[in-house]
Structures are given as C-alpha cells and as structure tokens.
Specification:
Blueprint: H1 5-19, H2 25-32, E1 35-36, E2 43-44, H3 47-57
Antiparallel strand pairs: 1-2
C-alpha cells in the first residue's frame, strides 16, 4: 500500500487514465450504420444485410440496387 504523495499521484493517474477513451457507443453505432431500408427506415451496416432484411421482412418487395 502506498502512502502520502505516492497515493495522491496514483489516484491522479488513475483518474486521468479512466477519463481517456470513454466514448458513447451510440456515436460509434451511428458511424457504422450506413444503409437505411426505405420502407421501414431500419438502419443497417451494409448492402448484404439490406438484402437479408428484405428477404425476411419484405418478401414481396424487391431490394433496391447497390448504387443507392
């Protein structure tokens, strides 16, 4: 166990270390989700997921092309 100045320095360093790197997962999610279903407005990560979404949720509809 540390005492005095060592303890205070260790607490300060731990506080600085714990503050860094904390970010919102919602912000990271927004960056990752790039494709949106035009029918139900669900956000998906890529075109493959959009195709799978259409086959399961909108089987009568044709998925949009990759260019959109």
């Amino acid at each position: 166990m540390t005492r005095g100045k060592q303890k205070i320095e260790a607490q300060r360093k731990n506080a600085e270390r714990n503050q860094k790197g904390k970010g919102s997962q919602l912000e990271a999610r927004v960056v990752g989700l790039k494709v949106t279903c035009p029918i139900c407005k669900v956000q998906l990560a890529n075109q493959n997921q959009l195709g799978d979404h259409y086959t399961s949720k909108h089987p009568k509809e044709k998925p949009p092309s990759d260019s959109s």
